[in-house]
Amino acid sequence: MDLKFTSSRKYISISVPSKSQAMSPHIKSVDDVVVLGMNLSKFSKPAQFFICVSGVFMFYLIYGYLQELIFSVEGFKPFGWYLTLVQFGFYSIFGLIELQLIQDKRRRIPGKTYMIIAFLTVGTMGLSNTSLGYLNYPTQVIFKCCKLIPVMIGGVFIQGKRYNIVDVSAALCMSLGLIWFTLADSTVAPNFNLTGVILISLALCADAVIGNVQEKAMKLHNGSNSEMVLYSYSIGFVYILFGLTCTSGLSPAVTFCSKHPVQTYGYAFLFSLTGYFGISFVLALIKIFGALLAVTVTTGRKAMTIVLSFLFFAKPFTLQYVWSGLLVVLGIFLNVYSKNMDKIKLPSLLGPWKKSVEERKSRTLSQTV
Asked: Which residues form a coiled coil (predicted)?
């Protein structure tokens, strides 16, 4: 908008910036959702849903397959921490590359916060990877589905929270499903080890804490996903490297992997790459459609991962896996329903009875009138 006056007066120019100019230089629109360089905002809602779900299933199914494939290499099971070290190294490189693609490269979150997040990330991924040396892959996935249990326990003892009957029922279903699945695994699996259960349980506890810490740090300091990935995984890489060096666990792992470079480093690169891409689609799904739909999709993905694990890798099977798995799925549904009671309306069992009572009252009233 330009305003001009007579020659005796000064020339006044008023310019109104456009919507895209008023924002940060590297953001085109407030509603832009970019995944792997693809702007999903240009597509319709059904197309966005199809792209996100396809990305989640494709990358995470490959991720799970490669993870189990690496641990199926004979002699690799003791080197779960070394795999986590390699994975953290690749994630740091991916985060650095992504950070270079945006204009604002400043670190916004304090270093002390990143040191805490890195420690929790090491606990989550390191213990989870190491547990595969002692557990069947489906058992590990079932445990990962039950993050609600340590979250609720921590909420009760640390924050003094109180939960409704639906949350308690969800935790109870998950707990019973886990116990049943673990008992079935101990019965049919020849290499079952209680150490794996302890490791994956500790990983769940760290995972339950890390989500809250990451969310609080990113909202408080307005940090980006690429910044979070770069600094948390690079610091975690140093933690694991220091730990393996002190425990003399680095040299045997390097020696073993150097003899099988394709089956270890090659698979680990693809394993890390698919995991990095998968989380990008999960975040996009949450941003566009909300956490309710994202949880539903990721739960379906985990169920598919378990099915494929039994199909591609030889392992004993029992129907107890099915029933206990369905019990865990019921717990997940109750947890999602508890958080979205205002959006999900379940049919009431008393509905038909109440309706019949009202009809009888109306008939009685009409007869008296």
From this structure: none
Q: According to DSSP H, which parts of the chain are helical?
A: 19-22, 45-71, 80-100, 111-131, 137-144, 148-158, 165-188, 194-221, 225-246, 250-259, 261, 267-289, 291-312, 319-339, 351-368
CB 205 within 8 A of CB 331: no
Residue 98: CB atoms within 10 A of its CB come to 19
| C-alpha dist (Å) from residue 294 to 49, 205, 210, 250 | 10, 21, 19, 38
Q: Which residue has the tokens 């992504």?
A: 98
Which alpha helices (DSSP H) does 3-136 contain, by range? Answer: 19-22, 45-71, 80-100, 111-131
pLDDT tens digit string along 93-131?
988 887 787 666 677 888 888 899 899 989 988 998 888
Could you tell me which residues come within 8 angstroms of residue 353 by beta carbon, excluding any fewer than 6 positions away? none
Asked if pLDDT for residue 338 goes beyond 60, the answer is yes
Nearest to 318 by CA among 223, 195, 188, 198: 188
Residue 310 clears pLDDT 50, i.e. is over it: yes
Return the closest-CA partner of residue 297 out of 55, 68, 116: 55
**Tally of CB atoms within 10 A around 235:** 20
pLDDT tens track for 32-74: 666 776 778 888 888 888 998 899 899 989 998 898 889 888 8
Instruction: Express each pLDDT in 213-256 by its tens digit.
Output: 776 776 777 766 677 778 889 999 999 999 999 988 899 999 99
Q: What is the pTM of this model?
A: 0.69
Cβ contact 200:143 at 8 Å:
yes
* β-strands 34-35, 38-39 pairing: antiparallel
Beta carbons of 316 and 188 less than 8 angstroms apart: yes
Report the candidate in 246, 268, 264 with the shortest Cα–Cα distance to residue 87.
Answer: 268
Q: Which tokens sit at 169?
A: 């029922």
Nearest Cα to 302, choosing from 70, 130, 57? 57
The amino acid present at 97, given as its one-letter code, is I
